[in-house]
């Protein structure tokens, strides 16, 4: 497997993990909102969950952009891309 293929696989795996995290946060928000529907806490719960969800969704969006960039890159500039992808695939992925 080429370095590029390896990096793509790691990036895709991380994105799947973040998407699962976003789905879990959405489910928790719906459950908590249902429990506290008529309480003042509902707004606080919704805001904190919304903030967490927005953060994960931003990671997903950024990760997808970086994955697309990686897929379109040539093997000759993989090292520079690996540096920029460290938040998505981890910093210790040197061959």
Notes on the protein architecture:
- The chain has 95 residues and is mostly helical.
- The chain has helices spanning 3-35, 41-72, 78-84, 86-89.
- Helix 1 runs antiparallel to helix 2 (41-72).
- It is elongated.
- The mean pLDDT is 82.
Describe, in short, the structure shown.
The protein has 95 residues and is an all-alpha fold. Helices cover 80% and strands 0% of the residues. The mean pLDDT is 82.
Key terms for this structure?
single chain; 95 residues; mainly alpha; 4 helices; 80% helix
The low-pLDDT segments are none
Principal-axes geometry comes out as elongated
Mean pLDDT: 82
Largest sheet composition: none
Give the ordered list of helices and strands: HHHH
The total beta strand count reads: 0
- What share of the residues does DSSP label as strand, in percent? under 5%
What structural category do the secondary elements indicate?
A: mainly alpha
Q: How far apart are the first and last residues' alpha carbons, in Å?
A: 12 Å
List the helices and strands and how they pair.
Blueprint: H1 3-35, H2 41-72, H3 78-84, H4 86-89
Helix pairs in contact: 1-2
């Amino acid at each position: 497997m080429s370095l590029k293929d390896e990096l793509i696989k790691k990036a895709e795996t991380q994105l799947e993990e973040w998407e699962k995290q976003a789905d879990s946060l959405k489910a928790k928000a719906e459950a908590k909102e249902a429990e506290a529907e008529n309480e003042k806490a509902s707004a606080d719960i919704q805001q904190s969950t919304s903030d967490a969800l927005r953060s994960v969704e931003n990671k997903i969006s950024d990760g997808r952009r970086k994955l697309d960039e990686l897929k379109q890159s040539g093997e000759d500039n993989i090292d520079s891309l690996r540096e920029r992808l460290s938040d998505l695939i981890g910093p210790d992925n040197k061959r």
